[in-house]
Design brief:
This protein is of the alpha/beta class. It has one domain: TIM Barrel (Alpha-Beta Barrel), CATH 3.20.20. It is about 35% helix and about 15% strand. Strands 1-3-9-10 form a 4-stranded parallel sheet, with helices on one face. A two-stranded parallel sheet has the order 2-4. The chain has a two-stranded antiparallel sheet with strand order 5-6. A hairpin with a 5-residue loop joins strand 7 and strand 8. Helix 4 packs parallel to helix 5.
């Protein structure tokens, strides 16, 4: 899989557009290699200009070319903006990055910008580029879920996040002709978040009674999002919400 970082130019200044193009090509370099079976020219130019030499064995290039991937899998959580000059602009955290904040998007409690339309854009860009089936293997919202007095975890914000992302995936399939073969979210149960090394940044449908210091009962509690997603799976649709 690739970590799909989706970037928009902060403005229509040609310099911002060019810098965004450079950033996106650096992301696609990994999947380009996997799909086309050869290193992209932009990566080879970078190696040459920075005096980096790839050590290869005889036959390596032929093996790469002979065994490309059958589908492209990727993670998607958020999008960011790119500016050639970031002076005076707000910068916010993201998945493995710091990037310019998009003033048109909401952010999570950790500053990750919530952008379901960006998932549709990512699907279209990847499918137009590769013409291979796609698989979303990570997607979800990290949030500070709280165990309520009724012994339950109410997370309507996660349901809203998932609903909007599901709708955009469906639009990419039905309107844009994208071949999307599957989806798995991150994650089915609360776990240590790699980005911050916290369990208090919760992604799961199942709450784990544990704090960042390792204290708790380790009891598992199904969140509201668990039951919502269960209905999505049972109906293979979001239509049940309208009934």
């Amino acid at each position: 899989m690739i970590t799909k970082l989706t970037y928009y130019p902060y403005s229509c200044k040609p310099e911002d557009v060019l810098e965004t193009q450079k950033r996106m090509r650096s992301i696609y370099a990994y999947s380009d290699t996997q799909v086309f079976g050869e290193y992209p020219s932009t990566l080879l130019s970078y190696y040459k200009n920075h005096n980096i030499h790839i050590v290869k064995q005889p036959g390596d290039d032929e093996v790469m070319k002979q065994y490309p991937v059958d589908f492209v899998s990727f993670s998607y959580y958020m999008s960011s903006c790119v500016a050639a000059d970031e002076t005076g602009l707000d910068v916010t955290p993201g998945n493995t990055i710091l990037a310019v904040k998009n003033p048109h998007l909401e952010t999570s409690e950790w500053g990750w910008q919530i952008d379901p339309v960006g998932l549709r854009i990512s699907l279209v860009d990847l499918y137009d580029r590769y013409r291979k089936p796609l698989f979303v293997v990570e997607n979800g919202l990290g949030a500070k879920d709280v165990l309520s007095a009724d012994g339950k975890v109410h997370d309507p914000y996660r349901i809203d996040y998932l609903r909007k992302h599901f709708k955009c995936m469906l639009d990419a399939i039905e309107e844009d002709g994208v071949e999307l073969m599957g989806y798995t979210s991150w994650a089915c149960i609360d776990l240590i978040s790699e980005s911050t090394k916290q369990i208090s940044k919760r992604y799961g449908y199942i709450y784990v009674d544990l704090d960042d210091q390792g204290n708790g009962t380790y009891n598992r509690i199904r969140k509201d999002s668990f039951y919502w997603y269960q209905k999505v799976i049972q109906n293979n649709s979001l239509d049940f919400e309208e009934q």
